[in-house]
Design brief:
Shape: globular
Oligomer: single chain
Number of strands: 7
Distance between the termini: 24 Å
Radius of gyration: 16 Å
Strand content: 15-25%
Structural class: alpha/beta
Number of domains: 1
Largest sheet: 7 strands, mixed
CATH superfamily: Vaccinia Virus protein VP39
Mean pLDDT: 91
CATH topology: Rossmann fold
Number of helices: 8
CATH architecture: 3-Layer(aba) Sandwich
Order of helices and strands: HHHEHEHEEHEHHEE
Length: 205
């Protein structure tokens, strides 16, 4: 998968992205509960798109919210919608290389994981961006089967497909203690807390 293709694909979809969203508020609430997103936290929304999850974070009273997306058009729309909110920062960039100036309490990858060329590399990178005992969540608001059927169509060039939740949990294991591994007809989620042993390591961001 070429990241340039991913950028082009999502730039093209960005203008209609919000209109394409289904009402998944109940599922999102469960996902963010499992993620441990709560008041006073510094949250990183990875591949944030147009900011679909931003209202959910803000309703939980997060201290600060950073969204990053590799698609300039997605990031532009998210930034425009939240330009007047001082709690929100939107970055157009590649999360795997962007030089962040802080660490985060929570990192969430929602409806985006199959679009990253190397899942293990992404997870390792996010582990280095999290503070001590920070939590990473990778989730989808639909079943694995639904996601893979959808990506088999027009998105097949920009998707690796969604692996079984148990396989994803194994990718987490070098860096995280996994305590959520869910794959149902309604949602898909793997989440874990950064291992204490990593806190003493030299971590480059």
């Amino acid at each position: 998968m070429d990241k340039r293709d991913v950028i082009e694909f999502f730039d093209r979809l960005a203008p209609a992205w919000d209109d394409m969203q289904e009402d998944r508020d109940a599922v999102i609430s469960v996902i963010l509960d499992n993620a441990g997103v709560s008041a006073g936290q510094d949250v990183l929304d990875v591949a944030c798109g147009t900011g679909v999850l931003f209202p959910h974070y803000l309703n939980r009273g997060v201290r600060a919210l950073t969204g990053i997306d590799i698609s300039p058009e997605m990031a532009r729309l998210a930034a425009r919608k939240y330009a007047d909110n001082p709690l929100v920062r939107v970055i157009c960039g590649d999360v795997e290389v962007y030089p962040f100036d802080r660490r985060f309490d929570r990192a969430v990858v929602y409806n985006a994981f199959p679009h990253f060329p190397d899942g293990a590399r992404l997870i390792e990178r996010l582990s280095k961006l999290l503070s001590e005992r920070g939590r990473l969540t990778i989730a989808h608001g639909f079943s694995r089967e639904t996601i893979n059927a959808h990506h088999a169509g027009g998105a097949r060039r920009v998707s690796n497909g969604l692996m079984r939740a148990e396989e994803l949990a194994r990718l987490f294991e070098p860096w995280f203690d996994v305590d959520v591994c869910v794959s149902t007809d309604e949602m898909y989620q793997v989440a874990g807390t950064k291992r204490r042993a990593m806190s003493g390591l030299s971590q480059n961001t």
